[in-house]
Amino acid sequence: MSAGLADIGGLTLALLVLAGVLAGFVDAVVGGGGLIQLPALLLGLPGATPAQLLATNKLAAVAGTSVSAVTYARRVPPHWPTAIPLVVAAFAGALGGAVIGLHIPKAAFTPIVLALLVLVGAYTLLTPQLGEATVLRHSGTRHTAAAAAVGLVIGTYDGALGPGTGSFLVIALVGWLGYAFLEGTAHAKIANVATNLGALAIFVPGGHVLWVPALVMAAGNVLGGYLGARVAVRFGSGFVKAVFVVVVGAMIVRLGGQVLGFW
Question: How many domains are there within the chain?
């Protein structure tokens, strides 16, 4: 596809911008923007390789995620004993994951992601009190180790593939570490910036980014990320949890249909 960038039409670019805005908004609230953005790239750039799609998606996503992370941090101050090990491990995991992602078929991950989303959705629905208030479940070195484990595992996944990373970060921070949905999402945004940068540290030098669609979608992501973060902060954990359930449900339907061959 790199040879055909000049052939991208204005309508395609406009649709990529709209997809970027929607993905940025959803990702800022609960994560999962990649499941909007990657299909849009696949439809708009049918000749792109899997590595180019992943790299282009990462560059667009990091713009919106950075804006939403800053917006959250101004209103929901980070808990640094969580944020620091989470971010460092997430960046390291994404570096390794991106290297892995260049050598494995992406189709093999779809059933795994689907199973994880079903478990996450069921756990959220069957635990009504989940994420209503921050009650940390670990302290001291155990808390640091738990935060680092979340960053490393999900960072590796994000570097290798990515869809649903924000949602997985949120549920790990809420369900395992004990954050409310709003505080968990705020920390997830910081970690997601780190995973995107880690993957880009591999993808950019490798020449995999398609810069025109990446920058166009990045502009949409910035707007969507800013709006989504402000809405989430204003309406609180209850709103974020409700959107989380809806987004996870939509992702299950989309990936389930893909596995079953409906689309």
Answer: 1
